[in-house]
Amino acid sequence: MCCTAGLPMQMALNQLIQRAKPDRLLIEPTGLGHPQEVLASLRSAEYSDVIQLQATMTLVDARKLSDPEYATDETYQQQVSVADCIIAHKSDLYEADELQQLDTYLAQLQVTGRPVYPVAHGQLQLQWLDAPCHWQPQPEVDVEPSHSHGHGDVFAATPDMPAEGYLRKDNKGDGYFSSGWIFQPDFEFDFITLESILMGIDAERVKGVFITDEGIFAFNIVDGLMSSTALDEVYDSRIEVIGRDPSAWQTLESDLLAASQRL
Q1: % helix, strand, coil for the chain, step of 5
Q2: How far apart are CA 255 and CA 263, in angstroms?
Q3: pLDDT digit string (tens) for 31-43?
Q4: Rounded to the nearest 5°, which phi and psi values hold at 34?
Q5: DSSP code of 54?
Q6: How far apart, in whole angstroms, are the C-alpha atoms of residue 81 and residue 75?
Q7: How confident is the model over 108-154, as pLDDT tens digits?
Q8: Which residue from 64, 75, 74 is spatially nearest to 101, judged by alpha carbons?
Q9: How far apart are CA 125 and CA 107, in angstroms?
């Protein structure tokens, strides 16, 4: 979901609720997400009889806290402060004192009384989702877009597609840049070439879904580690890249086009 809480987010959410009628929604903001604004929108009168908010879970890699770029980042701190529980993920990779550093960091932010769950290999417990949401809107939180960093999310509703069959979006904010592409479903990507392309991207985060010659796969790259998951069905192929230096993926579009064919 786009980090900007406003009309585009509400339109996409309304369409999802009306068409899919889900029993449960798991909402993941993009890497630059401002969760207070998303929560404020979900707390609005429009959804009071439609959505019951449950726990907000924030994933924190305690190894990053020694880097001031993360620890002092306003968005990073906001994501921690709204959490009903803190997920200390990748805990199997921590040094002896890094979990204690997380406790110290939370105390400095006055984030107290929240459970902290060390997790390895993404093994979250389903019952954690059922905890109540304690966040309440503050007077300064505006459910309209109050910040102008302009970061969008290519995983929102699909816009009109140009004749070329693919669309690119570029945005920036909070010291980060993002680029996203959507490809019509008649694009088929060479799986082996695609893996090589994705692993060669120097970025903070890469996530995508691709229709390939070996099937449909979701890709996720964080800290240089890539995971892929087979999927049954998608509407199109999509990718989003987030990082501090957009020149690091300057040739990505041409590389993706060279690794694909239109059926």
Answers
A1: 30, 25, 45
A2: 18
A3: 556 677 788 888 8
A4: -105, 90
A5: B
A6: 10
A7: 888 888 899 999 988 889 889 888 888 776 655 444 443 333 444 43
A8: 64
A9: 25
Q: What is the pTM of this model?
A: 0.60
The encoded tokens of residue 21 equal 């009628």
Instruction: Return the HEC string of 169-228.
Output: EEEEECCEEEEEEEECCCEEECHHHHHHHHHCCCCCEEEEEEEECCEEEEEEEECCEEEE
* Residue that the structure tokens 């009168």 belong to: 45
CB 58 within 8 A of CB 83: yes
Tokens of 151: 């970061």
- DSSP label at residue 132: B
Can you tell me which residue has the tokens 């630059």?
A: 32
- Which residue from 182, 153, 160 is spatially nearest to 260, judged by alpha carbons? 182
Query: Secondary structure of 2-37 in the HEC alphabet?
Result: CCCCCHHHHHHHHHHHHHHCCCCCCCCCCCCCCHHH
